[in-house]
Amino acid sequence: MNKKSNGFTFLILFLLIGVNSTNILLASTFNKYPFFDESASLSGKITDQKSNHPLTGASVFIHDLNLGVVSDSSGNYRFKNIPSGNFLIEIKFEGYKSITRTIMVSGKMEHVNFVMEETAAEISEVVVTGSSKATQIRQNPVPIVSISHDYLLTNISTNAIDAIARIPGVHAVTTGPNVSKPFIRGLGYNRILTLYDGIRQEGQQWGDEHGIEVDQYAVNRVEVIKGPASLSYGSDALAGVVNLIPTQPAPEGKMVGDITYDYQTNNKMFGGSGMLSATKNGFEWLARISHKEATNYQNKVDGRVFATAFNETDANATIGLHRKWGYSRLSFVMFDDLQEIPDGSRDSATWKFTRQITEADTVRQIVSDADLNSYKIATLHQHVQHYRLFSSNNFILNNGSRILLNLGIQRSIRREFDHPEIPYQDVAGLFLQLNSLNYDIKYTLRDVSNWDITLGINGMYQENSVTHGTDFVIPSYHQFDIGPFATAKRSFGKLDISGGIRYDMRSFHNDQLYTVPNPVSGFSMPVSGADTVGAAKIFSNYDHTFTGASGSLGATYRLSEKVSLKANISRGFRAPNIAEISANGVHPGTNIYQIGNANFKSEFSLQEDIGLEFVSQYAVIEMNVFNNDINNYIYNQKLIGVNGKDSVIVTGNSTFKFEESRANLFGGEINIDIHPTRFLHFENSLSIVNALNKGAAGSGPVPDSEKYLPQIPPLHGSSELRFDFDSKAFHIRHGFVKMQMEYYSNQNRFYAAYATETRTPGYTLFNAGVGGNFVNRQHKTIFSLYIMVNNIFDVTYWDHLSRLKYFYGNYLNPAPNDNPKEHGIYNMGRNISFKLDFPLDFTLKK
After folding, report:
1. Which H/E stretch holds residue 237?
2. Separation in Å, CA 806 to CA 178, 291, 739, 758, 818
3. Rounded-to-integer distance, Cα 130 and Cα 243, Å
4. C-alpha dihedral (658, 660, 666, 668), degrees to nearest 10
5. From CA 466, how far away is CA 331, in angstroms rounded?
6. In which band, very low, low, confident or very high, does the pLDDT at 742 lie, cut at 50, 70 and 90?
7. What gap in Å lies between CA 243 and CA 222, rounded to an integer?
8. In this predicted model, what pLDDT tens digit does every residue of 322-334 receive, in sequence order?
9. What span, in angstroms and rounded, lies between the C-alpha atoms of 199 and 52?
10. What contacts 13, CB < 8 A, 6 or more positions away?
11. What is the pTM for the complete model shown?
């Protein structure tokens, strides 16, 4: 990174820390300001509806204040020194129906009791994504799903995105077990905005094999918006949002933590995480460190798949302060991952995996069994580092209005080592250094004739340097995003309506790049000034400003206490990403020579959603249908040479070029969860998306081989039968036994032109799990144990969105076309997971 970039980074870092230091260290001064209200308290009692007995350990949380307490042995709870205002309160207790209620806190002391009802139904009530205030899902017209911590604990995954890939309408494009990117209703990459604790995640989202740089053990719950969310977040949220919400600091007066151990048999993954947090008198802190490593995964046909091992270390820390003026929080996150790069090459005689050992790659070495079982990271690998410092602030003013201020700085360093004869980690092929400054400011007005109105502006400044490597698939660039917006919502009895409008502008510039062979190594090296004479010009200067308006309008009508009807229409906006505009080179780890197009226009989508929800004591039924039309849809297409075979610019790499078209995606999801008793749960879901390539405007009929869009998941169905139990004899609480069935149909609707994609056969997987909390005589959890099995019958299958499906053959000596072993790499076989969690829970002295 150059001196200018370093200066910019340190300036922003200084300002960011300064903002929070001022908020926290001068909090006592804020108490004297006339625009902050007097502090208040909220207390009450939580009891069982039938017995009227107090409920001990119920969670009471105010999402807009990021503040929680738990009820004591008498069922009492208390918030002290909180601001006045209207707040949505959520009360949760295992086996009981969650309560959400808006409470007016207006004086020195408020007393509100809650009576909880036992229920078997499971539905998450409160979400914070895409809104200036916490809202109830039942009142939100936008299709949104909340995924609980219990779900994440009791399902097997090797990364944060795989953990949600079974949710209807949500999938993941993968490159092995630890590299996954979210897809929502058939759309992914820069069309999906990933957030971490509400701050947009900025890495190298354009890359196929670039995963999301997040510690899976730090994620406490996930909220997913299925549909355009450009109104709140601008470009890159055209298809939806995945908000990964980390563990929040301890409730007031408590010190809590956990120590987690995780082992998975298939790739012999060892994982572990330790967290500790405390809150006292409004001051909070949290710290976590995690590590996981694995060898190569396996299936019964391919055996162990070479170059799928990984070694990841993560850490995060948070400090914050709660006062009558609201709260201020400063968080730091570190992600460091060593990730091997598979290429699928095999020996044609033995069909064993081979490794590249020379730069010319004229001869390959067969990988030994010892190496296939080793945890040592191979010479060819990725090293991904991501650092994030962000500040979250919520100031509540005397007149009832609020100011939300979020600032973040991120540094993403991605190195891909693809030179086999160079000493380990000495010279990177691809070397990307991305610095991002994120800002988000919202002003929520006090109620205006019962309207909840928010005015805001957000965006980012970003710079990416690529000149420290030897491979240059994209140029260095910088961009600035800014987007003002306004949202409004109001309730009219049973009718809730919401909507808004936004205008985005992205100023974009990428740098020209000249290269010459390095006189020592022979690899390409950048040159400038007089040295460009006779040099190869890889990239040209490019400047463009992308603009676009977006918005949404929706309504929810409660037909009864059990039935709600929802409808929403939204317009999304997305500016093309750097690869789509400017790519020109080999992308290590993909086997692809990528070509961009500088003439692309911004994508615009128009999506209509209709939903129906039924919630009773014994069943939850949710149905959603959608239709999405996209103009200037950008997709990647394989190029074929004049000989009818793959176009090859660089040996060993197929050539792909981005194209632009019109697209229509439509489909829906249905969830039917039946709970005849508190102990028996039968949950079912079905999702489908159809995606049609409508062709460029005025281009005429689309050939049959191009009529479908690429990378569209097939119909997906899931059923789970779960039995919950308690056992006094074995000291088990909240135990469960479950069996799952997942069905994926044939994907016969694929982008067949130029052999870009092929048909994917359908398959059915069976999974199972058992677990629970082991408690002492006082019913306090000593540890929790979960044993889960994925793919019980060791089925051999391809996920349609797995990139490894197309990694097949030996580049130098391909097997004959009729060889039945010539295929892409299959997904993971049977995998058994053992997860052990030791909770820590202490009450702090007053």
Report:
1. none
2. 18, 30, 32, 9, 17
3. 9
4. 30
5. 28
6. very high
7. 6
8. 988 889 999 999 9
9. 42
10. 389, 409
11. 0.91
Burial status of residue 423 (CB atoms within 10 A of its CB: 0-12, 13-18, 19 or more): exposed
The two three-digit tokens of residue 820, written as one number: 């039945």
492 vs 496: CA distance, rounded Å: 6
300: DSSP letter? T
Task: Give the per-residue SS3 of 490-534.
Answer: EEECCEEEEEEEEEEEEEEEECCEEEEECCCCCCEEEECHHHHCC
| Closest by CA position to 590, among listed 537, 539, 659, 636 | 636
Nearest to 142 by CA among 608, 561, 504: 608
Return the SS3 of 715. Answer: coil
> What b/e readout covers 348-376, taking b as 16+ CB neighbours within 10 angstroms?
beeeebbbbeeeeeeebeebeeebbeeee
**Pairs from 701-708 (Cβ < 8 Å, separation ≥ 24):** 703/753, 704/752, 705/751, 705/752, 705/753, 706/751, 706/752, 706/753, 708/749, 708/750, 708/751, 708/752
Task: Give me the amino acid identity at 315.
Answer: A
| Structural contact between residues 279 and 297, judged by C-beta atoms closer than 8 angstroms | no
Instruction: Annotate 466-480 with b (16+ C-beta within 10 A) or e (fewer).
Output: bbbbbbbbbbbbbbb
Both structure tokens of 638: 């394989």
Instruction: Please count the residues of the chain.
Output: 846
Q: Which residues contact 345 (CB under 8 A, 6 or more apart)?
A: 353, 354, 355, 356, 364, 809, 810, 811
CA 512 to chain centre: 33
Backbone phi, psi, residue 531, to 5°: -70, -10
Structure tokens at 209: 């094999």
Contact 480, 506 (CB under 8 A): yes
Cβ atoms of 518 and 506 within 8 Å: the answer is: no
Q: From edge to edge, which strands make up the β-sheet containing 187-188?
A: 170-174, 180-184, 187-188
Residue 96 DSSP code? B
- Of 575, 752, 704, 609, the C-alpha closest to 228 is 609
Query: Nearest Cα to 196, choosing from 463, 438, 441, 500?
Result: 438
According to DSSP, the residues that pair with 545 across neighbouring strands are: 507
pLDDT of the residue at 123: 61
Which strand ranges, in their side-by-side order, compose the sheet holding 192-196? 144-147, 219-226, 240-246, 192-196, 199-200
Per-residue pLDDT tens over the stretch 772-826: 999 998 888 999 999 999 999 999 999 999 989 988 755 444 444 444 455 789 9
pLDDT score, position 521 = 83
Q: Residue 268: left if φ>0, alpha if ψ -120 to 50, beta else—which one?
A: left
**Residue 452: strand pairing partners:** 489
d(CA 273, CA 267): 19
Contacts of residue 84, defined as CB under 8 A and 6 or more positions apart, other chains included, come to: 37, 38, 40, 105, 106, 107, 396, 400
Q: What is the CA radius of gyration of the chain?
A: 27
Cβ(78)–Cβ(42) under 8 Å? yes
Give the percent of the chain with pLDDT over 70: 91
SS3 686: strand
